[in-house]
Amino acid sequence: MEDEYFNVEEFKHYGEKTLDIIAQDLILEIEKGDAFPLPEPGFLRKLLPKDAPENPEDLDSILKDTREKILPNMTKWRHPKFYGNMPALITHSAILAEMIGLALNNPMHTWSICPAGTELENIVLDWCAKAFGLDSRFLFENGGGGCIYNTIGEGNLLMAHAARYKKRKELGIDTRDPKNLQFVAYYSSGCHYSTLRALTLKDVPIIREVPVKLNKETGTFTLDPVEFAAQVQKDVDEGLIPFFFGAVIGGTAVGNADPIPELAKICQQHKMWLNVDAAWTGASFVCPEFLKEYGAGLEGANSIAINFGKWIFAGNCAALFWVSDANLFTESLEIHPEYLKNRVAGANKVVDYKDWTISTRRRFTALRVWYALRTLGIAGIRKNIYRGVELTQHLEKLVTSNPRFELVCKRELAILCFRLVKDKDGKRYEDSELTAINKKFLQGIIKSGEFYLAGADLDKTFFLRFILNNPSTNEKHIDALWAHMEKVLQDI
User: Fold this and answer.
1) Alpha-carbon gap, residue 80 to 83, rounded angstroms
2) Strands across the sheet with 206-210, in order?
3) Which residues are bridge partners to 221 per DSSP?
4) What pLDDT does residue 439 have?
């Protein structure tokens, strides 16, 4: 079949060239470039034309511009010296799966439009729920189920929506009832900001941040469930209606975990929706000891998220969410226009993912996850997690060997948080100096572009944050980072 807008021969020829660029520039030789390039803002406008081309251009020149102008000026999240944020991993098979998904270009919103795609997503979610030790009520066969969203933030918004719907249904009210103005939602201050954004977008009238503080006995950042329970009861006594709590296991700043078992009991007592963001740490649930350490109490959650774009090699835009009551969740979103009706819709025979999402256009992300799981196996994911933890322990030993540093909190898996607290003579800086000193130290580390770490601020404490991202990182890279840090220290 001929297609004027899809040149098969060009696709095959330049597809091979593109794969060579990916393999060479972004995998095999990625270390030749900086992890964190710092071009001047507006640099690209000076390199590219002001207007789109009137006539077609050849792919040779486009690939040349990509290689020379775009790739060198991108922060390399897969670089072995990138330690500044949560991982963004992908494996070769997931890239191949993405190519197939893009070529299909299926909107993926109803079973009848994408039977195999819908059912593959169902299967992948059940596979992962079992592999990650989630309670059986999150399986489709038991009335639960899930969906793959682009981001955790997208899923958080929909969980907040479902939670409000659930509370209205319990109270027997609709959106016009004045009681809606009494609704109150809570979130852990250790959460990613997308939880607050979700509640803000839902126009929740009262939003309360539950503070996360350092527990000096355990060395971990956590919230106090007793204080939280007292706040909820106070709100109830004042006539407010609690309906949602956003919890986290693996907070972005320090990898902190909220006390889920205690929170679940409080939420159940007040019939609140408990949403657990385990975006990063959730991957570690494939390791029995980490599931035991971080996964307690999840059977009491209404929804759970694990981001497969982080530690599970499926690439970005792969956030898996599970809910314990799929019927209630989809009921909160169901709208059935005539043009989307089909012979099986609404018959409880199939899943229509239009009833799980805002948009009726979705990526075939399940194919990427399926490819990654099959080519790596759960054992492959587990191996990489253990490796990341071990390498972070190596840096931890180096940091604690230097008396100028202190750990801000206990290492959580592959996140290490530390700060500079003493000068060259061993004198401790004043508390008022610590933020400025550590920001100066951080800038000294990253200004060359060779390495990338990030700073964070929690409980009024600024610190440096190391996160082990990539399987290409090894002990020599950690040693090189430490040598670089010691060199920067000489000027502070």
Assistant:
1) 8
2) 145-149, 319-323, 303-307, 273-277, 241-248, 183-188, 206-210
3) 214
4) 97
Tokens in use for 106? 């299926």
State if pTM tops 0.85.
Answer: yes
Fold of 99-375: Aspartate Aminotransferase; domain 2 (3.40.640)
Sign of CA pseudo-dihedral 330, 335, 337, 343:
positive
What tens digit of pLDDT does each residue of 360-406 get?
Answer: 889 999 999 999 999 999 999 999 999 999 999 999 999 999 999 99
149: helix, strand or coil: strand
**pLDDT digit string (tens) for 192-243?**
999 999 999 999 999 999 999 999 999 999 999 999 999 999 999 999 999 9
As a whole number of angstroms, the distance between CA 125 and CA 45 comes to: 43
Could you tell me the two tokens for 102? 């893009």
- pLDDT per residue over 270-320, tens digit each? 999 999 999 999 999 999 999 999 999 999 999 999 999 999 999 999 999
| Helical (H) or strand (E) element with 162 | helix 152-171
Question: What are the φ/ψ torsions at residue 221 (nearest 5 degrees)?
Answer: -85, 130
CATH label, 384-489, candidates 3.90.1150.10, 2.10.10.70, 3.40.50.360, 3.30.160.390:
3.90.1150.10
CA distance 417 to 428: 18
Residue linked to tokens 């990338």: 452
